[in-house]
Amino acid sequence: MAFNQTVPCQPSDPAADLRAGDQLVEDVGVGLSGSLNLRRTALRLLTMIRPRLADWAMVVLPGDRPGALTIVGGDDAGFHAVISASGIADLELSRVLRTGGTELRHVMMDSDAEADLANMIPHPRLAAEAATMRPADLLAVGLTARGTTIGALVMIRSEGRGFNPQDVTVAERVATRAAMPLDSARLYEERGRIATVLQRSLRPPSLPSVGGARLAARYRPAAEHLDIGGDFYDVHGRGDDWLLSVGDVSGKGVEAAALTGRTRQSIRTACHFDRRPEVVLDALNTVLFDEHTKDFVTVVCARMRRDADGRFVVDVASAGHPAPIVLRADGRVESVGVGGTAVGMVAEVQYRSVTIVLESGDTMLMFTDGVDEAMGADGLYGVDRLLALLPRYAGADPEVLCEAIEQDVLEYLDGRQHDDIALLAVTCGE
Amino acid sequence: MRRVDERRKPLEAYDAALASGDTETVTSIVDGLLRDGQEPVSVLTDVVAAAQREIGRRWQRGEFTVAQEHAATATAVAATRVVSNHIRQVPLTRGRVLVACAEREWHALPAMMIECALRAHGWDTTLLGASTNPLRLNQYLNDLGPDAVAVSCSVLGSLPTCRRFIEATTASGTPILVGGPAFGVDDVRAVALGATAWASDAHGAIVAMDGLPAVVSPAAPLPGERTAEQAALESDHRRLVARLRERWSLVAAATTPDADCLNSVVDVADDVLHQTLHAVEAALLTGDHRVLPETAWWVDDLLGTRGADPRMMVELVEILTAAMRDYPVAASMLATHFVVPDDWRREATVGE
What we know:
The complex is a heterodimer of chains A (430) and B (352).
Chain A: H1 14-31, H2 38-49, E1 56-62, E2 68-73, E3 80-84, H3 92-99, E4 102-106, H4 113-118, H5 124-131, E5 135-145, E6 148-158, H6 165-202, E7 213-220, E8 231-238, E9 241-249, H7 253-273, H8 277-290, E10 297-306, E11 312-319, E12 325-327, E13 333-335, E14 354-358, E15 363-367, H9 369-372, E16 375-376, E17 379-380, H10 382-389, H11 398-413, E18 421-428
Antiparallel strand pairs in A: 1-2, 1-6, 2-3, 4-5, 5-6, 7-18, 8-9, 9-10, 10-11, 11-14, 12-13, 12-15, 15-18, 16-17
Chain B: H1 8-19, H2 23-35, H3 40-60, H4 66-86, E1 96-101, H5 108-120, E2 124-127, H6 134-144, E3 148-152, H7 159-171, E4 176-179, H8 188-193, E5 197-199, H9 202-210, H10 224-247, H11 249-254, H12 265-286, H13 291-305, H14 311-323, H15 328-337, H16 342-351
Parallel strand pairs in B: 1-2, 1-3, 3-4, 4-5
Helix pairs in contact in B: 1-2, 2-4, 3-4, 3-5, 4-5, 5-9, 6-7, 10-12, 10-14, 12-13, 12-15
């Protein structure tokens, strides 16, 4: 992918030059406001100034770790390289980066030209590329925003088209305009890196493959763009003995997601020792109560064990969470009769489990209240609507079932804001 | 590499397994084709996508329930995953691309196939699932800084959000490729919405991606009057569907509790009303009138296969026209263009 390159006629009218300069500064201001990604913002800047301000250009920006610099530019839009800031300390470019000032060089086209250029263009491929432009002038301008010089814009004009003082002024104004959106993008990326790493640990897990059963899940947080929320699902275990959990932290967004992470870890640890759902819930309750968190968590846990006939015996216990629904292979639906206090609220709770059996083609659906409490134009979605939807998916793959529910609920919402939504379905039979 | 059409037998076996929801057979057939050296993208377009179109036709003819159609789609998703796994080792030689479905686009499969095809050609792909809102797309645009975005639209109802995707993407200077049945057979709608490029299928997408510019300008605003009417229609959609439902005697006539659910016209009545209103919105948004006769033909055919009274089509046009009283541009477009062209009917008859 190469930039379009057309060599403009040199305007000779100073007033027209001035207007063109003003227009470019204005275009850069508007054009760079649309992106918060550092590389995309730099690419945009480079396309806007070529060829109006320069025949060739590159931008030096902060890298993704301390002491690193990123270089974007040249003829190949895909090109970017990371160099070390200390490695260029002796080059002229680093003076621009230190002072934020402007440096104009007339390039002599002799054998030393490339060495000359390398002082400002600290990458062999780019320096070689620049040399083929038969450069007349090289102009480097610091990019300074919020009191700090964050980078530099390096431009070249070919033979017969040097930078006059007015061009230098325009270049400095362009740099001033560009520096602020570039710095905003830098700040955003820095924050984004922190968030991404933390977010990764809070994302819903990928489902393990469970012998003799099929699993499917869906997750739609209230803040859909964040990909994380206060609902969760997990599947732990091995062989013929598994623990499924679905839960919901009171509250929404990032704070809820953080508590979700601790809750999931506690469940994981508890079920390492004992997979009985009432024991897992009891352990979770003690841990969260002792933490004195102001939020509470509702959870439903189901331990499923495969018997010799390939059926699953499922022990279910709930802590204030909507009861799972069983969809039989023949289309009958039933709610699993479980109830209990949400975890983290009182010191001692006795959780009790009930046992159900899933035969081939039977599905158990676990969900959060983002489903039944979805608020549409006709009020709440409601468990009844869910119960009415399910029979036509009797015997279907759990993936199909989850997709159908998600679609039905979102269409019911018709674009309205919703709470976190989580679904976990398990069907007996491969 | 052999061409796929030399191997009729696996295709027939694939169709049969797909129709009966036999995921295991479907995935093993796809695995076999790939092991035999079939080109992965052709397996997607000539086997998986082709069979999926046949499933759609079966639903159209009333031979498949929605649940069966969903099951077949889940199986096709599994088939696509086999191809994805097969090409996972292809080195990343091109840039980063974000593949997305706009809101109301619940058919994640086409986007999944495009993602797979682009990955097979060395693109570093990130797939956002079904029905993604513009806020989430924006988040990924800023976080990933992709070299391009690719959007798949099967249903007309997803075009309004697709336009918002185009605005968001081009505002960041990123090029955007669009495609899918909602765009029709050429690039007219894509150009009208301000997309950077359009592709008719996975092969086209691969070619189009290589031709995208590195940086694009923000998409130009859409014509004011039409767009304002489209926005009003969009927010009024639910109320309009409810009103049309009340007035269309097709719905009233067919609400018997023990109607055969496979052939029941009431099952399709809602689809018809949603689709028709979305077609009107699409025409307003893109200025492409062809979407109206196309939809009229689809509705007419659907009602015909479900054994509805032919007068129901006439009645639909009447109640639609009445409902569009507050929407002058839409009303005049409907009056002129929402008809099944005579030659289309003739072709259909000859075809049978």
